[in-house]
Amino acid sequence: MLRLWQFFQTVLGIIFRHPVTGTTMIPILPDGRIVLIRRNDTGKWSLPGGIVNWGEDIPTTIERELEEETGLNVVKIRRLVGVYSAPDRDPRIHSISVLVEVEVQGTMKPKDTLEVSEVEAFAIGSLPKGDLSHDHDRQLQDYLNGISAIA
To answer: CATH number of 19-150: 3.40.50.720, 1.10.150.130, 3.80.30.20, 3.90.79.10?
Structure first.
């Protein structure tokens, strides 16, 4: 039922031609590794994230999406990295994504196996850069370069 409601909200956004707001996270484990997910729809690695539900604030969305996609829990939201709003940043819809860095803990295991096939933690030197889903290469590079972006 929840999935149906989320789908309905997305369709309404498309019909009324307003961008959909979402979040993207840079999850940092205690050992400094960055957690990525492998998306089922594209087969590509991606930063975790998702759409803000009606009546939900961004911190709640971050906690919910992180747990659904990675099995991890937010310890602390460290900082706002950027806001990404290019109409072509998401091939499915026009979405605006708020990117944040978060400290995380727990056991990596996706709960939403319809969206996520795999969760893995990468040392900065072994990140699979260059072919991430959506505009996540740009988001990750901005983060690694210490840039606060509005794009």
So the answer is: 3.90.79.10
